[in-house]
UniProtKB/TrEMBL annotation:
InterPro entries: Endo/exonu/phosph_ase_sf (IPR036691), Endo/exonuclease/phosphatase (IPR005135). SUPFAM superfamilies: DNase I-like (SSF56219). This is Endonuclease/exonuclease/phosphatase family protein. The lineage of its organism: Bacteria, Bacillati, Bacillota, Clostridia, Lachnospirales. The keyword Secreted does not apply. Residues 118-145 form a coiled coil. Pfam families: Exo_endo_phos.
Amino acid sequence: MKKEVRIIKILFWNIYNKNLISPLIDLIKENQLDIVSLAEAENLDITAILNNLKLSGNEWNNIQISPQNDIRVLAKKEIKIIPYKEDGHYSIYKIKKYDKVDCLLVVVHLLSKMTKSNEAQYNRANDIARELNKYEQEIFQNNEKQTIIVGDFNMQPYEAGICSGYGFNATMSAGHAAKKTRKIDGRTTYLYFNPIWALMGANKLVQGSYYNSGDKDDHAIYWYSFDSVLLRPCYIDKFNWDYFEIIEKTENHNFVPNATIDKEKYSDHLPIKFEILGG
């Protein structure tokens, strides 16, 4: 009997409080998405999106926890995904298979650099990382942690909130992440793998999900990877590098005209997509 292969395609986009119905529909259809996760989505007409998809033969659901939160998640009807926990800066969902939790999906929208210092960002990342570890323990107990975190971290992947062992403990090294843990001052900490590094500095127009030509610290960075994907080690070999992308355009919408993000028409962030292969 042929073994079932589970493939799941996920997109994240901070939509800048815009009602971006048409671009989102294009993204869903063109990229054959299974789950769409959004931040700053309070003004999005989700009903219009669901109705449009239904007319084209695609049944999708709104997986809502709290309407007060700016995070929204939409999923294909056949995806068994249920809300689990919510905080002001993240929402957690259980993706189930055969009535067991197959994946813990966490969507984050962390503190902005426009309102908080680097220290405040790090402190909040530290708090959230500890909370998520607690929820993982409740769900997976002594089994392997099967968690994916995606969203707007508002931090570069090399900042302490992301890569510190007291933050999310996410490394660019798949080899080190595959070891699952590292010790800091005698304490065992669990690692994430962060693949976004592969898109930074690539020989492409877009080299990050956020653009800023007026850095207050005079850094010549321009493209920032504030939006990212953190994977527990069990997903490293299942990550489809060919699908992984910061999306510049759809058939009907160009998010990056004239080499900069069109935040007036669309968002100040670009969407990112990734795919997990399974068995």
